[in-house]
């Protein structure tokens, strides 16, 4: 859960007490405005201590001066921005996370004026976002407090030249932070707590923000013909669900955009059962659905001027006597048939029906699905990039640009007729697994058969969304990957 942190924005003034954060480049000098506010003695002190500590002002570096004689504060925290090239590619959220990690006083004042950089209100808001994301932790089920853990700063004051403008931008960033937190919470929850029904209830909570939410139970899905999705969940005692979320912030009747998430709340592999080692991580096999819920929260909280559909397929894949078998053939909602080769290739079955349902019912401008779909994507891209597959170059390019802007990077992977050939079945229209070679692309090839001519992108997030790399803005197991990326995509191209 996110710690209770207060973030304020006010005009620069003299500071008395707490931590003060200032930024320097490789010249080790604050901006002229900050230097004037601190005074020459403080500027000289920075240079003197830097020489002793061998601090060079490199990007992502910091040093702390305790009880600086030139100032009436507890600590002067000096953060390096690096050279000109580093400053040109500065990740503001990561910078905020770094600041949060280096402060310890109850209150920290951040001198948000940067040598060699003209920061926008959005840049400062992203720093505040980074602080909030850095301070997230998931300790709901711990009964004993960690006595070695310091409380850290509970109030950050940004000294900025235009407080009102930054406050406005920060309000949007707060909604995004809340969306990321929701996604992280969902992925981190244990599977005994978060089944399909409980997950659907979390999605229903978005009604408080004006999101319309509709829950399809198994009876409704049977009527629609979602037999691929239902087949995945038939081995579990917990019934499957589909949650459909609608944010109508655009023009009435305007074509919506759509996001679809895989929500396998626990994946044992079914009859094709997974190895026991590490199976506990399969509680995170619903990270795609978690992202969609977090994204819908972010969009609704900032009242995005767009019509947006979010749809998530929620199932549990278990191996009881009713479970789906290798060799079974299921008929999807589209009428196409799929031979089950491996019951652990279940996410594409869930998405097949939900993608078809969304394109058929809502006729969206585009669809983007997110899924922790294949281990093969980790072999290709490790945990550095999500795999991007698409039938539309413009959409793919826009997603890639949003990824670069937010640091949630994607890498485009191939999907085409060669991979269609690999999933041909002797007994059905296609098979759900073609083996190890090209595993991510053959999975994407199957999904593409359920989008018709709608512009579509598939994001394979198996490497980025759970067991996530540790960064300045993510110190937990789940990063909430995709919320910031897709919010940026919508903001840049699909509002108004």
Automatic annotation (TrEMBL):
<comment type="function">
    <text>Presumably involved in the processing and regular turnover of intracellular proteins. Catalyzes the removal of unsubstituted N-terminal amino acids from various peptides.</text>
</comment>
<keyword id="KW-0645">Protease</keyword>
<keyword id="KW-0963">Cytoplasm</keyword>
<feature type="active site">
    <location>
        <position position="274"/>
    </location>
</feature>
<feature type="binding site">
    <location>
        <position position="267"/>
    </location>
    <ligand>
        <name>Mn(2+) 1</name>
    </ligand>
</feature>
<keyword id="KW-0464">Manganese</keyword>
<feature type="binding site">
    <location>
        <position position="267"/>
    </location>
    <ligand>
        <name>Mn(2+) 2</name>
    </ligand>
</feature>
<keyword id="KW-0378">Hydrolase</keyword>
<dbReference type="GO" id="GO:0004177">
    <property type="term" value="F:aminopeptidase activity"/>
</dbReference>
<feature type="binding site">
    <location>
        <position position="262"/>
    </location>
    <ligand>
        <name>Mn(2+) 2</name>
    </ligand>
</feature>
<dbReference type="InterPro" id="IPR043472">
    <property type="entry name" value="Macro_dom-like"/>
</dbReference>
<dbReference type="InterPro" id="IPR000819">
    <property type="entry name" value="Peptidase_M17_C"/>
</dbReference>
<keyword id="KW-0031">Aminopeptidase</keyword>
<feature type="domain" description="Cytosol aminopeptidase">
    <location>
        <begin position="342"/>
        <end position="349"/>
    </location>
</feature>
<feature type="active site">
    <location>
        <position position="348"/>
    </location>
</feature>
<feature type="binding site">
    <location>
        <position position="285"/>
    </location>
    <ligand>
        <name>Mn(2+) 2</name>
    </ligand>
</feature>
<dbReference type="Pfam" id="PF02789">
    <property type="entry name" value="Peptidase_M17_N"/>
</dbReference>
<dbReference type="Pfam" id="PF00883">
    <property type="entry name" value="Peptidase_M17"/>
</dbReference>
<comment type="similarity">
    <text>Belongs to the peptidase M17 family.</text>
</comment>
<feature type="binding site">
    <location>
        <position position="346"/>
    </location>
    <ligand>
        <name>Mn(2+) 1</name>
    </ligand>
</feature>
<keyword id="KW-0479">Metal-binding</keyword>
<dbReference type="InterPro" id="IPR011356">
    <property type="entry name" value="Leucine_aapep/pepB"/>
</dbReference>
<feature type="binding site">
    <location>
        <position position="344"/>
    </location>
    <ligand>
        <name>Mn(2+) 1</name>
    </ligand>
</feature>
<dbReference type="InterPro" id="IPR008283">
    <property type="entry name" value="Peptidase_M17_N"/>
</dbReference>
<protein>
    <recommendedName>
        <fullName>Probable cytosol aminopeptidase</fullName>
        <ecNumber>3.4.11.1</ecNumber>
        <ecNumber>3.4.11.10</ecNumber>
    </recommendedName>
</protein>
<dbReference type="InterPro" id="IPR023042">
    <property type="entry name" value="Peptidase_M17_leu_NH2_pept"/>
</dbReference>
<feature type="binding site">
    <location>
        <position position="346"/>
    </location>
    <ligand>
        <name>Mn(2+) 2</name>
    </ligand>
</feature>
């Amino acid at each position: 859960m996110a710690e209770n942190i207060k973030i304020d924005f006010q005009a620069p003034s003299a500071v008395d007490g707490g931590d003060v954060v200032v930024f320097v480049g490789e010249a080790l000098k604050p901006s002229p405005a900050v230097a004037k506010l601190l005074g020459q003695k403080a500027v000289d002190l920075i240079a003197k201590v830097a020489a002793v500590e061998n601090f060079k002002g490199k990007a992502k570096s910091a040093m702390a001066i305790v009880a600086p004689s030139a100032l009436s504060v507890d600590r002067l925290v000096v953060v390096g921005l690096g050279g000109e090239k580093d400053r040109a590619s500065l990740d503001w959220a990561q910078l905020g996370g770094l600041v949060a990690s280096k402060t310890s006083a109850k209150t920290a004042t951040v001198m948000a004026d940067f040598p060699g950089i003209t920061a926008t209100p959005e840049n400062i808001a992203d720093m505040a976002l980074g602080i909030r994301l850095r301070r997230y932790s998931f300790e709901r089920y711990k009964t004993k407090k960690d006595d070695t853990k310091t409380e850290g700063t509970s109030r950050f004051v940004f000294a900025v030249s235009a407080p009102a403008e930054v406050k406005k931008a920060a309000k949007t960033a707060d909604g995004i932070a809340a969306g990321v937190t929701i996604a992280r919470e969902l992925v981190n929850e244990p599977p005994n707590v978060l089944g399909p029904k409980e997950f659907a209830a979390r999605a229903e909570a978005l009604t408080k923000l004006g999101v319309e939410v509709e829950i399809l139970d198994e009876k409704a899905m049977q009527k629609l013909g979602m037999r691929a999705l239902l087949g995945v969940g038939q081995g579990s005692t917990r019934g499957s669900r589909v949650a459909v979320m609608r944010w109508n912030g655009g023009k009435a009747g305007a074509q919506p955009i759509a996001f679809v998430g895989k929500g396998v709340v626990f994946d044992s592999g079914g009859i094709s059962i997974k190895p026991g080692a590490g199976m506990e991580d399969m509680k995170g096999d619903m990270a795609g659905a978690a992202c969609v819920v977090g994204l819908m929260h972010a969009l609704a909280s900032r009242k995005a001027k767009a019509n947006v559909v979010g749809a998530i397929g929620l199932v549990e894949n278990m191996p009881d006597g009713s479970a789906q078998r290798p060799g079974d053939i299921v008929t999807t909602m589209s009428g196409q048939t799929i031979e089950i080769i491996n019951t652990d290739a279940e996410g594409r079955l869930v998405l097949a029906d939900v993608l078809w349902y969304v394109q058929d019912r809502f006729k969206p401008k585009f669809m983007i699905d997110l899924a922790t779909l294949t281990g093969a994507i980790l072999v290709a891209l490790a945990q550095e990039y999500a795999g991007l597959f698409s039938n539309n170059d413009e959409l793919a390019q826009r997603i890639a640009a949003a990824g670069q802007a937010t640091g949630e990077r994607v890498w485009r992977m191939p999907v085409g007729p060669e991979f269609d050939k690999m999933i041909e079945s002797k007994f059905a229209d296609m098979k759900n697994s073609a083996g190890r070679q090209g595993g991510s692309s053959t999975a994407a090839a199957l999904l593409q058969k359920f989008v018709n001519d709608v512009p579509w992108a598939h994001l394979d997030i198996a490497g980025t969304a759970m067991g996530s790399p540790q960064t300045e803005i993510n110190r937990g197991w789940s990063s909430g990957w995709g919320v910031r990326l897709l919010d940026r995509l919508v903001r840049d191209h699909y509002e108004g």
